[in-house]
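Field reference: sequence -> structure
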Amino acid sequence: MVGGAEAGIINPEFYSSLVTMHGTFMISFAIMPLLVGTFGNFLIPLKIGAPDVAFPRSCRWSQALGSIWVLPGAYHK
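Structure field:
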């Protein structure tokens, strides 16, 4: 059984911790990198009047690598 509960019912504390962990991971690894990429790669060049960023592929790679390497480091003590 999930969480060691009887009769297939999950303990409320275990369910709450699963939902909290899922929300934290989704915000940290999905929503925040998408917002940073949107503002940094697309909206700021439009605001300054540039047709595109200077190196669009390197901007995309920096966004992807930043979300992989920088965000987990924020949780390390």
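Note: The chain has two helices and no strands.
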